[in-house]
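[step 3/7] fold_predict: job queued, chain A
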Amino acid sequence: MFKPLALVTTLCCTATLALAQSPAPTTFPTEFPAEAQAPDAKALAARLGDRVFKAAGPNGLGWRLDIKNSGFLFLDLSNGLRDDGTWRTEDGKLCVNYRGRIPAGCNEVRLVGDTVLLKTRAGEVVTLVQQ
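[step 4/7] structure written:
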């Protein structure tokens, strides 16, 4: 015999259990830690150049930055968007002049030891993990 109430109860409890076991949404800070240092332009260029970094953004979007000493930067996002352009550093900032859909601009960058922190245009601080 079909018991709709039992089915609804089972689905409800299963959904509740699944939600309870899901990881909580990650929150990202909007300020750099107190110990973070703003590198000068030359030191920042040396730290970033000829390296590949990955990051996870607050919206779950993954980034891959391939930063070349030649002055070019290649960006791949996990949603399939790709862009590239020229990059330069200013004191405490990474600036990119993208050639595609992403607007040109600068992002604040800080260092905590070997850790590179970048503030997104939305104001969240993300960690760039060297690959």
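[step 5/7] annotate
The first helix runs from residue 4 to 21.
The chain has two helices and eight strands.
exit 0
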